[in-house]
Amino acid sequence: MRALDRKLVRDLVRLRGQVVTIALVVAAGISAWVCLRSTYESLLATRDADYASGRFGHVFCRLVRAPARVEAELSRIEGVERVYPRLVERGLLPLASSPEPAVAEVVSLPIEGEAPLNHVHVVSGRLPHPGRGDEVLLLEAFASRQGIGLGSRLSWVLEGRRRVCTVVGIAVSPEYVFATTEGALEAEGRSAVLWMARDALAAATDKAGVFDDVVLQLGPHASERAVIAEVDRRLAPYGGRGAFGRSRQPSNALIDGELVQLRAFSTVAPLLFLAVAAFLVHLVLGRLVNLQRGQVAALKALGYRDREVAQHYLALVSVVVSLGAVIGVASGAWLGRGMLALYLEFFRFSEVRERLSAPVVLVGVLGSLGAALVGAGQTVRRIAALPPAEAMRPEAPTEYRLSWFSAGPLGRLVPTSGRMVLRELERHPIRACLSSFGIALGIAVVIVGWFGRDALEALIAHQFERSMREDLEVRFLGPRPARVVRTFGAMPGVLRAEGGREVPGRVRSGARVRDVRVVGHPAGATLRALLDADGAPVRVPSGGALLTGKLAEVLGVSVGDVVELELVEGAHPVRWVSVTGAVEEPYGLALHLTTHDLDVLLREQHRVTSVWLRVDPWALGAVRRRLATLPGVFSVTRRTALVAHFRAQTGRTMGTTTFVLTLFAAVIAAGVVYNHARVALSLRARDLASLRVLGFTRGEISSVLLGELSVHGLLAIPIGAWLGARFAQAVLATVDAERYRLSASVSRSTYAFAITVTLAAGLFSALLVRRRLDRLDLLAVLKARE
Amino acid sequence: MLEGRGLTKVYRMGEVEVHALRGVDLALREGEFTVLVGASGSGKSTLLNILGGLDVPSGGQLLHRGRPLTHAGEAERTRFRRDHVGFVFQFYNLIPSLTARENVQLVTDIARDPMEAREALEMVGLGARMDHFPSQLSGGEQQRVAIARAVAKRPEILLCDEPTGALDVKTGIVVLEVLETVHATLGTTTCIITHNAPIASLADRVITLSDGRIEREVRNAERARARDLKW
Ligand SMILES: Nc1ncnc2c1ncn2[C@@H]1O[C@H](COP(=O)(O)OP(=O)(O)OP(=O)(O)O)[C@@H](O)[C@H]1O
Ligand SMILES: [Mg+2]
Known about the structure:
- The structure holds two protein chains of two kinds.
- By secondary structure, chain A is α+β, with helices and mostly antiparallel strands.
- Chain A is 53% helix and 20% strand.
- Chain A has a six-stranded mixed β-barrel with strand order 3-4-9-6-8-7. A six-stranded mixed beta barrel of chain A has the order 13-14-20-17-19-18.
- In chain A, a hairpin with a 6-residue loop joins strand 18 (562-567) and strand 19.
- In chain A, helix 2 packs antiparallel against helix 19 (639-693), helix 9 runs antiparallel to helix 10 and helix 14 packs antiparallel against helix 19 (639-693).
- The model of chain A has no long low-confidence stretch (mean pLDDT 85).
- Helix content of chain B is 29%, strand content 29%.
- In chain B, a hairpin with a 2-residue loop joins strand 4 (59-64) and strand 5 (67-68).
- In chain B, helix 5 packs parallel to helix 6 (169-186).
- The mean pLDDT of chain B is 89.
- By secondary structure, chain B is α/β, with parallel strands linked by helices.
- The radius of gyration of chain B is 17 Å and the shape is globular.
- Chains A and B meet through helix 1 and helix 8 of A and helix 1, helix 2 and helix 3 of B.
């Protein structure tokens, strides 16, 4: 081994604490990248494979009923490659666990062969036999959640009639990867899907020779928008309910949202970590070379080339990065598997493709190597610039100046150790700033990990607490006469009942078109509040419509403008509506009218699609049981259950991400503080040892070092809070604002938590260094000229 | 063998110019033992650094065996140092994380025809302390390691800046004896800077610098032995 390599090994051993902490920061970066990216790629590959093998359609449309011949008409639309007409019905499935039944979608299966589109993949058991109305396939997610096995007897309600069937198979399907039925955000765990032979289902619903749902496959160059418009035009006479693409298909939309979020996190978080790693390498290597100026000069004087000396120090960096890379890739792969498993708990695919691609690993390793080299760059330049004649000169005493502060009357009030801290800060303001910045990055990372909860809570407060004020929401299978509102209001225990109408619509302004919900609000409504941008309630005015703020923005309209509204129901009437204002809603795009105005637009008698109820708490159970048995009721939802479910569903993946990010942030903060403290210690070991010789106590000298670190920590707080909020905004910017509008305001408790965790990690590592200070070998320090 | 003609060196510190050398002509002859003396700040170290290729002159010429080094780049000067020059620094400049032997190996690793590290250390009388770290050696011992490191490559030229500066008389004499032995056994051209007038009697030639110029040059008819020195 060459002597220079031996020096490398000894330096590595001597600097092991720093080597390990920097390697851990590098590992955190690579790990975050590998974990999130491999989860993203696995999920994407799994979804794509599942959609391809399951022939998932591109355009979907529900309708009232159309004769079989319409199929041929649809297949003639340009761009359409395949048409699959079928029956999809609504059923109710009573559950032992709650008074409300599960909402079931009942889908027809072809009598012979496989479905041409939206395949059903039988996991166990078999397909129902043709003609057998008492045999069904059950969605796996629902079956496993409810503990329903093969061969179980299911009792359920279709078209108001009670039926008993046997579960002959358990299945998954690309259209129900995430078990959710249309418009039922709340129904996870209560969303069931049943498949039945087509003839049996047609017989049960009196729909022989007709279809009420259609799936289309498009050619590679087809325009989805044009196809949707054409499908709507052709299905309008048959009660078409508005065609939509994959982006609005409930299960797919959820997976898409998750993928977008993963991709955003998988770039933002690792970039942050790599920046920190680069910064730490810069800090430590720079100061190491500073400490070893004499050695560098001596090596050069002895005839070592600049390149050789630089390589010697870069080798040190490479060892650190390699160590970090090994830990990072291994832990990232492991965490990625765990994360994927979490997703697969509620995304059910026919087959899972786990991906840990070589490019991902390579990019991670090269990225961190690059970051480290960037961090090392300045130092290497400094090595090259250092004149070898330096070796002949004694160490120049460092320059201290008296500043107005420490020399002034104020300075005299500060004890000697405090003055040493102040002078150090005055003399190396940049060093102090960099160190604070490093700790600040730690705080920012925790904020990025946690602000998602804040956004979620803000959404919940807005939507579920201030906007929705009912106890129960009852939805009907189709529009019902308005008198049901009075009937419900008369039920014992019901304090107030209000009925609303919701119709799918399409708004146009110039060339801009958006699919929206058109919501009719009863006069004097109190149970559903609309809020303006400041959170103040807004009354729905008559003679015009309130638009979701984002909708007004994308359409480019403001108060007083007129928009074209197509009501996607019945004969698809097209009307003109004037805009009277904007409201703030956390998700979706909607247009709000009074029920009266909506009736006028529809040219209909007053009818309702849902009823909101305020119920006496003691009567809640009885009311729920009563409502569940009523005919025509599609779902009954408790607001509190909805909130709980919403929290649980988003909380699980978020919980993992935040835990991992918090851990990483602690690693960063510890890394920054530890390295800074070690470097400060070695830079000033001589001064501190001299102080000890002069009679200062251990406590006094460590207060010099710890005092300096505390100042860095304090400075880091505002910087970290500010950075964290900016990063949170950057992450939110990747969310599709037309779907979700989350607020990037970080809560006080998140700030407090982030600051506490980071400073605690910092304090811990500062104390580690303090122990070293306590054991400072006075003689060795004073003798060695390092 | 190594010749400087009209060497000047100006340090610029902001507005102030320090003329460290104001035109020095000096030739070191093969196998010669030269001593540089002069008041503090007279430019001795500056001259030695330029002669050894550690620094570049502001003006004048430097020739090594007739080949000009003045306009050589850093790479060529590094080669020159690596192949021909051995340095002994006043402050030893040993690598603290390497043992005595490894500090010497630092040089033998890159030299063209080096001696064994052990041999070099035995030459300075430290054969028994080879595996000790600098922090385990006294100042004089560290200086001897530095000398072993300088001579291990069998340099043509050995340049020492105050090799005894930090040492007491007894240790200083031991170090000078080592330099004497090296000079005698290897025939190395040697140039030593010192503040101690008595050391000048060891030299073939004594050059006195004053304010950046050569003030005086004296040839000793007879060279004294290090062990007879007193100061
Ligand atoms: N890097 C430098 N920058 C500015 N001035 C310098 C530098 N190095 C040396 N000098 C100046 O050049 C002059 C000559 O310095 P040099 O180190 O050669 O003196 P010296 O004869 O070796 O003195 P000493 O016996 O004290 O070591 C001095 O005035 C010194 O202040
Ligand atoms: Mg000098």
